[in-house]
């Protein structure tokens, strides 16, 4: 009888450990997927909306093609995007949809 209690206790303890650890691992895996990266999340937006001007030899004062070039400007980029001053697009959307609209999509802000 004593062996049955010990085996049952070990099985219950094992099940409790597995159950308790699984959500934490799931949340940790999800959290690591949710962390934005330059290559996966930022660079595609910069290349699509900013690189026309923000690259060597163009009108903008700095290049934003690499992480090393863009990182020092992160706060400024955030502020300019929030104020809708960058990328520059002066056409008023209430007058219709324009070809080559350079304004950022809501998901990219």
Beta-strand content: under 5%
**Total DSSP E strands:** 0
Oligomer: single chain
- Binned, the helix content reads 40-55%
* Shape summary: elongated
Radius of gyration: 25 Å
Distance between the termini: 65 Å
Mean pLDDT: 78
**Helix/strand order, N-terminal first:** HHHH
Number of structurally distinct domains: 2
Number of helices: 4
Low-confidence stretches: none
Largest sheet: none
Keywords:
0% strand, mainly alpha, 109 residues
Question: What does this protein look like?
Answer:
The longest helix is centred in the N-terminal third of the chain and has 33 residues, at 2-34. The chain has helices spanning 2-34, 38-49, 67-70, 74-82. It is elongated. The protein has 2 domains: 1-35; 38-108, no CATH class. The relative contact order is 0.07. With 109 residues, it is an all-alpha fold.
